[in-house]
């Protein structure tokens, strides 16, 4: 009995360590060759990393045991039930609940509350972002059911983002774009991928390549709109010096046992909406018992414990590490190119190991009949993230308005959406939403805020946020550009693709002719 448990524990630690290893390698190299001194409190940093490692392992195991199987099964059941109203309600509820419990969004929310002096509360940001994702996923599900082109929705959506940017408070612009890049991470991305592909494979006449992908893109778009609209209507700037930083330092974590228990209980309450959605859907709407209620209970407990440990380790280890790395790279005598190199390598290394990106890449490789190689897609996206972080750092140093950089970038995305072959567009938008992980976000957020704090004339709330936005924007541009070039290469006179009646557009027949699961004639009532 002990041997299988030990083996499972080793597997969990190995998988979590795989996500942390590239970041640790980059940190060690820069500490040894450029900063050249030990962290102020290495014991606290090592302890924080260890807690994050164990917490992430427990968290992922809980997802595998509870959330993923239940989410996939319920998406399938709702599609077969044929009730469009219940399907939309389920899509909203499960999206809202999963985003509210998203660790990467928590990291950004804590930092936002700290540097805004409490004027943008962490819980407010999380709930506003979750509301936006829930509404946008409903629109995405509607698109799948109706079989509409994703460009007909996302292009007007990004036009609304640009319009809102013109009126939103400058303190919230970078934060809104960053929130769009972190809402679809460890919890949300697999749930949305399972929901979208499951619906596309269940509803007759839908293609998983064209219709199944894209929900993550919808989820990433919504917070950019709704947070800026919230800022226009309700935001009142605060004084960052008025409140202490939310993310505590290592010496603030000498909690008594009772306080730790209350902190864990508070983390459990974050998962209550997900549990409520599952139970109500199963017993009241679908009217069937859960297949494995004991497994669901154990899985949810593991998720809660993992989130709790991740949160504690985040505040003890990763945030202070990010601040110390930025201080070391910003000191006199260190060239600016070293900071840019650090940003690029951190972005590239962590993105290559991002589990959500790996899952999307493998799925894209499979349904595109090998034309979107998983390793190439991951490499292109990782390079895009690295370049995006470098551009974001350059923008902070330059001091220019972030809108002058992001608006042309998103206009370019919209132009490429009209030019790119249809098969690549949903994948590109989804890649932009899964590039920032629970490990990347704290380091990148700390880099941006720390760089703004140590650059004369910069406001951490206005200038410090936005690196994640650049890291989400560049992969979309690079992946769609790759699709355009690959499509042009395949359409050369020397290449004669075979047309297929299963492809909805002749120009995409090369990729879509053998795409698996063009839709099973199970239920057309939802359409």
Q: Beta-sheet strand percentage?
A: under 5%
Overall body shape: globular
Structural class: mainly alpha
The helix-strand sequence is: HHHHHHHHHHHHHHHHHHHHH
Radius of gyration: 22 Å
Number of helices: 21
Helix content: over 70%
N-C termini distance: 50 Å
| Residue runs with pLDDT of under 50 for 5 or more positions | 240-255, 497-504, 509-527
Taking all residues together, what is the mean pLDDT?
77
How many strand units? 0
Count up the domains.
Answer: 1
What kind of assembly state do the chains in view correspond to? single chain
Tell me what the structure shows.
This protein is mainly α. It has one domain (13-40, 83-256, 316-512). 75% of the residues lie in helices and 0% in strands. It contains 21 helices and no strands. Helix 11 (257-285) crosses helix 12 and helix 12 runs parallel beside helix 18 (440-453). It is globular and about 65 Å long. The model is unreliable at 240-255, 497-504 and 509-527 (pLDDT under 50).
SSE diagram, text form:
Layout lengths: L1 H34 L6 H40 L2 H17 L2 H13 L6 H25 L4 H17 L2 H13 L5 H15 L5 H5 L2 H20 L22 H29 L7 H38 L5 H17 L2 H13 L6 H25 L4 H17 L5 H9 L6 H14 L6 H4 L3 H24 L18 H4 L15
Helix pairs in contact: 1-2, 1-13, 2-3, 2-8, 2-12, 3-5, 3-8, 3-11, 4-5, 4-7, 4-18, 5-8, 5-10, 6-10, 6-16, 7-10, 7-20, 10-17, 11-12, 12-18, 13-15, 13-18, 14-15, 15-18, 15-20, 16-20, 17-20
Q: How do you describe this structure in short?
A:
This protein has helices spanning 2-35, 42-81, 84-100, 103-115, 122-146, 151-167, 170-182, 188-202, 208-212, 215-234, 257-285, 293-330, 336-352, 355-367, 374-398, 403-419, 425-433, 440-453, 460-463, 467-490, 509-512.
